Amino acid sequence: MANQSSSSSYPILCASFNQDASLFVIGTREGFKVFDSNTGRLCYERAIGAFIVVEMLFTSSLLAIVGAGEQPSLSPRRLCLFNITTGTALRELNFLTSILAVRMNKERLIVILQDKTYVYDINKVKILDAIDTVPNPKGLCGFSPSLDGCFLALPASITKGSVLLYNVMELQSHCEIDAHRAPLAAIVLCSNGMYIATASEQGTIIRVHLVSDATKSYSFRRGTYPSTIFSLSFAPSKQIPDILVATSSSGSLHVFSLGFALNQRSRKSSTILGSIIPNSITDALDPAHRHVLHNAVTAGVKSNAVIRKVDKVADASTPGIAFCKNTALG
């Protein structure tokens, strides 16, 4: 999805996919619309004013919506839990400052403000915890919706790329990772909470850490020149995700293969040279891990891409290795 606000009479104020990327929603100055990701079919629309946050809960009828403040009833400090089946508001929550981001799963509701994050029981709409954070004016966060590995990732510094990992089900801090020297620009957790990927404001290196013990598992080079990373997304997977995609201000879509990197790593470790060169160095410099779709969107236009599914295709010429056929949505 690309925000064409500079050239459209009805600019997109927000856009997001649901937790399994089967649906996506856009918010405009007129209202919001929900679409089927596979067919592009319009599933639901509501023209009641401008919205800056619209988040779905899987394929349920529940939406979390936040107004843009253009009407008194649609304050950016008010979160509305909205039922699209009945067309009515189920509950409203008011805050002292503007809501920058909202995340949900079947047990938790996360509300991100500039310097505070609130965790709610979504079924009872009861506050469970309030987390003080560093200033986070962009509402940057990562969230894994799985109940078995439900983590929230937030910036932990304004001067370097540190990320705080918080266990949303256990309501306690898990760890802090120093991922980059420059401040963070993008964070994503894979759906099962196993891996976290980050990019800094420099935008040249994307790093992937294992959440359980905060160890760096992969480093991928996006490019040589600085660029703003607009989005990061893992492919859906019950175990280790095979693919990571990134969009940036360059207008290109970058696809990184975690599975290929893992296979290459095992090969390098069996050689004398490979055993003495750190994996983080070889991973970052090996272009075979990356595929680039140039001019995927207009350069400078904010974009968001996810991988809907991954089909593994066996290669008869290379026993034991499967290549991935990806269906990406953007």
TrEMBL record:
Domain of life: Eukaryota
Species this chain originates from: Carya illinoinensis
PANTHER family linked to this entry: WD-REPEAT PROTEIN INTERACTING WITH PHOSPHOINOSIDES WIPI -RELATED
Localization annotation: Preautophagosomal structure membrane
InterPro entries (UniProt xref): PROPPIN (IPR048720), WD40_rpt (IPR001680)
Transmembrane segments: 47-68
One Pfam family this sequence matches: PROPPIN
Name the UniProt record assigns to this protein: Autophagy-related protein 18b
